[in-house]
Amino acid sequence: xxxxxGLFFLCFLLGAPFVFAHHPTGGSxxxxxxxxxxxxxxxxxxxxxxxxxxxxxxxxxxxSDEELLSFAGEGxxxxxxxxxxxxxLGAAYGITEDLTVGVRxxxxxxxxxxxxxxxxxxxxxxxxxxxxxGDLSLLGNYRFFARxxxxxxxxxxxxxxxxxxxxxxxxIEGERFETEFQPGSGSWDFMxxxxxxxxxx
Length: 201
Fold this sequence. Notes:
By secondary structure, the protein is mostly beta strands. The chain has one domain (about 1-5, about 45-200). It has two helices and eight strands. The protein has helices spanning about 1-15, 65-75; strands at about 50-60, 80, 85-95, 100-115, 120-135, 135-145, 150-160, 190-200. Strands 1, 2, 3, 4, 5, 6, 7 and 8 form an eight-stranded antiparallel beta sheet that branches.
């Protein structure tokens, strides 16, 4: 059984595709791609409660106006901002020993947003800052397989992100920020995943 569990785990790792991201992280509530983070398959346990406060601060090396204009001259629409602060408050509850449900609400700050467009290659647009509530996520974790002796367990992950975030933020000129800069996505999105864990001595 131990060999089969190890073989399954190895095949799972080797079969996982590479993931690339071109946006900074905004946490789970913005709908933007970001760095890959993992979720443990272990549930809380029946009747247990967890509260989470997460803060993420990223200081970028922003593009200069000259670099943005150069990108625009090459036909690319590139934006820049600095820094990013993402706060999120979460809570989870163990319904059974194998099922945990939770909720997470983010608050997002983006500073010094600016960009240059390929159709206006000689002008840099300065938009200013944006902040606001992101989208509320409802999450679940169901452990369907566990072998304590082998140190192996796996779970299915599921959830839904509701369009509760703000989507009407305006820049310093009174123009609505593009969707990618809004704290909320404005859409319902469903999530599904799989988590597996093997513990070694």
